[in-house]
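Protein Record: Sequence and Backbone Structure Tokens
======================================================
Tokens: labelled as protein backbone structure tokens, with as many entries as the chain has residues.
Task: work out the structure tokens from the sequence, keeping to the layout shown below.
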Amino acid sequence: MAAEGQGPTAGEYIRHHLMHLTNKEQTFIVDFSVINIDSVVFSVLTGLIGVFLLWLGARRATAGVPGRFQAAVEILVELVETQAKGVIHNAASRKVIAPMALTVFVWIFFMNFMDLLPVDLLPGIWHAVGPALGFKDYLRVVPTADLSTTLGLSVSVLLMCLFYNVKIKGLGGWAHELVTAPFGTSKNPLWALLLGVVNFLMQMIEFVAKTVSHGMRLFGNMFAGELVFMLIALLGGFAALSFSGALLFVGHLIAGTVWAIFHILVITLQAFIFMMLALIYLGQAHDAH
């Protein structure tokens, strides 16, 4: 622990910023009754912002010369629609999947965007308000740096894939695919049974692997970005404690600016990748083996 009258050490600072505001004490045991309140709140808030902006774009849409905001929304909608057409060849399915993909992209972008806020801005405000209200002095503001958020999103995509597998192929057709792909079947009953078991296990492994990797990819990138911002913030903190603080402070400003500019590309790319993988997995659910 830090000495009395001094600030936290670098390790204590990072550990504190990596703790969630929860409804009960966190343990190392998996406990599904523990809710990360901060992730839920910021997910809902960023979702409402995304919905409001899309609604505003639709409300302001005109047949004449579009303004900058309308043009930006139209470019985004056209981009998502083009990607959906290239993967989902069923026009009826695209009426649901394309808006879903647009929602996912916008929502994840805004959740990722929370990483660009100053590291201590909202936690600092919560430090003054939270304990006074009876809450713990913990707050993480990037929902996608929380594994429960990203896995929740990927599981939602999995459920949609299961739904379209049944809808497009029928329950019997999908059940047949589960035991015949990818290795096929045999006329010999014993070999057919053996291949059926192997095929089914391979299908289950594929579903689990796609879902876990889908969520872990987004989480890993955003968690790493969050850590880099914390380290840059520590560089500024050390500047105030060092005789060569001026140089450290300049390095803090340069590193923070460069990483923030680069991170704008990262958060956009991660939202796009998650959306594209969702489209690809849903497109695979429409394909017959």
